[in-house]
Give the backbone structure.
Amino acid sequence: MNMSTRIRRRHFLVGAGGTAVLGASGASVAILPAIAQDAQGGSLPSYADWKNPEAMVIHTELTLETVRDAIGTSVVTSNDVFFIRNNLNPPSEEVVQDRDAWEVSFEGVANPRTMTLGELKTLGLETVATIIQCSGNGRGLFDHDASGAPWRTGAAGCAVWSGVPVRAVAEELGGSVDGARFMTSTGGEELPEEVNRDEIVVERSVPLEAMENAILAFEMNGAPVPIAHGGPLRMIVPGYYGINNVKYVRTVAFTEEESTADIQVSGYRVRPVGESGAPDQPSMWDMKVKSWVIHPLMETTSGRVLIYGVAFGGTNPVERVEVSTDGGETWEDAEFTGPDLGRFAWRVFVLPAELEPGDYTVTSRATDSQGNVQEQTTEPNHRAYDYAGWDRLAVGVTVV
Ligand SMILES: Nc1nc2c(c(=O)[nH]1)N[C@H]1C(S)=C(S)[C@@H](COP(=O)(O)O)O[C@H]1N2
Ligand SMILES: [Mo]
């Protein structure tokens, strides 16, 4: 692939949208034909040619989705199936030739300066398991046409990241300036000269409190962060939507105001369909409580069936998951399985069920530690962000 800076706006629609059927509760439940979402979208782009092609739906060269059940059941999503979302072409391989030479500028601190990754590594080390989930994950489940990839469940993955705590860096540099209310991170992609910077730069501000848990990550699941996922260095803001986890981070600034980048001002804002994005609308910061089933999908054999999936609460621990096999009419508590990697990670849940031959609508509903319950449906919003409704996250399963 030609790595010169260039923006791709091709969006291949892969697989048909969900078919609406009436669940037992009378709720409109969408059946997801999981097979239709197989990786038939094209060949892997060169910067991601090490991905497992069987596990990826290639929407475009810059948007690769994980097939619903390819996230597996061992909590951590392996790098070779982890989804990719890039707004711009990633930097060239050269940036990972000498990772420790990568430079980051710190602004909005008492003693602003640029540090190399090698220097940063002397300041502290922290590991956090967190989910990266694109704001548009589930876009393909809405009825309205919104621009962007029609992701279903696969624009999300859970990884263990290690790196340098941002608070340790801020401390080293004399602390953030008085009046700072946001932490603003800028991506290191090369920008085309003819375009206004604000229109294209990946720059995101998050509330300053998010700094407490944020790390500058150089490792992902035990390997140096691949370029596809933001290497050599990526900002990780645990519990926050994907866009806030800025890859190839070049600048970290503690600012009084939010960034003036379009991505901050008007992008990633939740508003009614037809409305333009504006700074007074909610920004895609911390994530909503959400869960979905990854097994069974499509068809299974009658008798004892293990129903399982993943659940998370954004910045809150997930506390409970219920499973329904009748489209939300009745629910049963599932159990968590596997290690608890902390409140920012997802948990795998499982419920053994005895299923007779027939058609079932299988779905799950999570509750977080604050009592927030996963919503039944998600109201349409202009950019079709974060479908979290258990109605259309349901799967239609034929038991034979
Ligand atoms: N520098 C930079 N950071 C970025 C992006 C980008 O295009 N450039 N995309 C963001 C978006 S929209 C998402 S959903 C996540 C995707 O992370 P992943 O590709 O590692 O899964 O990265 C975010 N960080
Ligand atoms: Mo995203």
